[in-house]
Design goal:
With 228 residues, this protein is of the alpha/beta class. The chain folds into 2 domains: 4-119, Response regulator (Rossmann fold, 3-Layer(aba) Sandwich); 130-227, Winged helix-like DNA-binding domain superfamily/Winged helix DNA-binding domain (Arc Repressor Mutant, subunit A, Orthogonal Bundle), CATH 1.10.10. Helices cover 41% and strands 21% of the residues. It is built from 8 helices and 12 strands. Strands 2-1-3-4-5 form a 5-stranded parallel beta sheet, sandwiched between helices. Strands 6-7-8-9 form a 4-stranded antiparallel beta sheet, with helices on one face. Strands 10-12-11 form a 3-stranded antiparallel beta sheet. Helix 2 (35-44) packs parallel to helix 3, helix 6 (155-166) packs across helix 7 and helix 6 (155-166) packs across helix 8. The longest helix has 17 residues, at 192-208. Bound molecules: calcium ion. Calcium ion (CA) is lined by residues 10-11, 53, 55-56.
Length: 228
């Protein structure tokens, strides 16, 4: 049995073409023609992979992805317009596995599909609620708070904080964090860890006047309780 793939694409001719090609490759294909229909299908169906167009009527692809990630970690491959750099960055940050830029060749798409199916769900770990002093993080509900104040975190910020909390008091090198949060095959900027640590500090340490995230110079970062 081939994998179950959901195509969310409003361009009927492209959607039909993709359906035929994927069907020919032995995949079981379902189609949705707009964002709302796509989200509904994605939430209810047992899909192994979702091909998600970004420019969709009703609910755009990134919004579909954001809502999907509150509930499920089905792998997502984004179909983005050329030069839509922000879409790619926010898409990956919101938990897309990968993106492919239109127009693409079917061979390239099939290769990306195989890669995404191999990698499987993005690195979401659902465990018990993690705590450090007033800081709490609930992986299952994808929520974090400091005291009663909810933290508004992007997908990667959340994973980074979760990783630091899971390794409380244990220094994490940049490479360890890169591997755990961005994955083995991450090929982007290597200072991405420092950038996201800065975002987290703004939302946590700076916002609440505490010091939880510590820099270990030349090594990496560690999260420690701020109680004396
Ligand atoms: Ca479109």
């Amino acid at each position: 049995m081939g994998a179950n793939i959901l195509i969310v694409e409003d361009e009927a001719r492209l959607a039909r073409f993709l359906e035929l090609e994927l069907d020919h490759e032995g995949y079981a294909v379902t189609r949705a023609a707009d964002g709302r229909e796509g989200l509904e299908a994605a939430l209810s169906g047992p899909f192994d992979l979702i091909l998600l167009d970004v420019m969709l009527p009703g609910l755009n692809g990134l919004e579909v992805l954001r809502r999907l990630r509150n509930e499920k970690d089905t792998p997502v491959l984004l179909l983005t317009a050329r030069d839509a750099v922000m879409d790619k960055v926010s898409g990956l940050d919101m938990g897309a596995n990968d993106y492919i830029t239109k127009p693409f060749s079917i061979e390239e798409l099939l290769a990306r599909i195989r890669a995404a199916l191999r990698t499987g769900a993005p690195n979401i770990r659902r465990t018990a609620v993690l705590r450090c002093g007033a800081l709490t993080l609930d992986p299952a509900r994808h929520t974090a708070a400091y005291g009663d104040a909810p933290l508004t975190l992007t997908y990667k910020e959340f994973l980074l904080l979760q990783t630091l909390l899971e390794n409380r008091d244990i220094v994490q090198t940049r490479d360890m964090l890169l591997e755990k949060v961005w994955g083995y095959d991450y090929a982007g900027e290597t200072n991405v860890v420092d950038v996201y640590i800065r975002y987290l500090r703004q939302k946590l340490d700076d916002a609440f006047g505490v010091k939880l995230i510590h820099t270990v110079r030349g090594v990496g970062y560690v999260l420690k309780g701020d109680e004396p």
